[in-house]
Amino acid sequence: MKTTSPLLYFLSLIIFVFSTFTTNPTKFLVAADSAPNPVLDVEGNELRKGIDYYVLPVIRGNSGGLTLSSTSNATTACPLDVVQEQHEVDNGLPLTFSPVNPKKGLIRVSTDTNIKFAIAIVCVRSTVWRLDGYDESVGKSFVTAGGIEGDPGRETVSSWFRIDEYEGDYKLVFCPMVCNVCKVRCGDIGVYIDVHGTRRLALSDVPLKIMFKKA
Hints:
Strand content: 25-35%
CATH class: Mainly Beta
Strand order of the largest sheet: 2-3-11-10-9-8
Number of domains: 1
Shape: globular
Number of strands: 12
Order of helices and strands: HHEEEEEEEEEEEE
């Protein structure tokens, strides 16, 4: 039986690859293009893990950046709820982002990400964001602090958010993919104004259009 020499086989393979690339080069670009786009700040720079940023509304109006505040009536309650500042000149508190793959330094759109206020607070709980349980009294699920950073899976599913492209800017989304067997209620993150006028972040039909500014 006649066999093909290794050299002839190698040359044939090179010719085949070159011919395929010249006729349909997009086949070889799929892997490079498959990664989601990086999230960009207001200066056009890529968001990176561990860097402090302000999350600001694109339309400032009567509101500013994001911060922590207590929405409880108790005077000693810890500031565990994520809210929007009342004044547009206030950038709020800086935040850091950490993607589900800790080895990846870039923050990319539509990728599970932890969001964390880059400050220390008196409360013993963490400043990592999480989606709280459904509040039947107002029909909302609110964004609070006290989440778990890293360790993707069933126990941390409420602590993962996404940044999605939205009308030329960005929005925050809760729809984690870190647990295949978990049932979660997906939705955009918007603003709910309570009876005290506090602008609380919650699942909403109207997303908050945001941008990122390096702190």
